[in-house]
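Exercise 3.2. Students should predict the tertiary structure of the chain below and write it as structure tokens, then compare their answer with the key that follows.

Predict this chain's 3D structure.
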Amino acid sequence: MTNSISTRLAVLGSGPAGYTAAIYAARAGLAPIVIQGIQPGGQLTTTTDVENYPGFRDVIQGPWLMEEMQAQAEHVGTKMVWDHISSVDFSRRPFVLTGDSGTQYHADTVVIATGAQAKWLGLPSEEHMKGRGASACATCDGFFYRGKKVAVIGGGNTAVEEALYLTNHSHDVTLIHRRDSLRAEKILQDRLFANEKIKVVWDSEVVEFVGGGDPETLVGLDIRNKHSGEISRVDCAGAFVAIGHKPATELFQSQLELDDEGYLEVEVGTTRTSIPGVFACGDVMDKIYRQAVTAAGTGCMAALDAEKFLAAEDYQALAAE
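Answer key:
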């Protein structure tokens, strides 16, 4: 017999957006459940130092912050479920979510907070240097490289924006691009080429993240020219991979409206998706800011939107009696 769980509000995902949505929903008396997914706590569980989350003067640890958010959500009445949703049916209400465990979750409303993952180059040395100089977020980690040489890998809007941002902290920024022209918008390119702190290395790809010292940290990148095959070294203490993000929206492609990059589309100024009763928050719908604090903010919005949606339904039901 299939195990079944019913709830007024199910949250899919357990990063800052999902936990914040759960906190607000629980405080509103909705008794939400959080289906944590394959990475409870989200991307912050892979981030060591967090220095830009409001309320903490000292550097805090990403995993610790997620543990605290989870504990707060549970304290106010959220039920945590360790499961991964493999299919959803938004064609009828209550919505039906099926987990890898075989459990079916019947939810009057759903908040999607499944996040997005940064795309990496896939080099073993890159994986080894994560947290030691290799990063995918200049806004998050650029502050740690004040006065040091840094590099950005990529050629689109994100890469150019990150290179420009890093000039606030570094006097020496190298942008490495595998082609001979950038894909970024012209206005961003104009700003990049006008900035004396930035130099561009064309037609080159990173082949190795080079570590050194004790404890080991990033000291440079080995790059290969795509035409000559020549290997050269770019000295840097921080390397920011900026080749895009992939939102976790595969489950929803046939049921919810997505933009041309695969992010969930929401009504402007809200977290409402194309299906009434389904809401989205955090990086799964935000391709611009992608910060823990903005994810938490949209998580709050999603819970409030869901609460208003359910309250309106309850009022209509009472009026019909």
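Discussion points: The chain has a mean pLDDT of 94. The CA atoms of residues 121 and 241 lie 8 Å apart.
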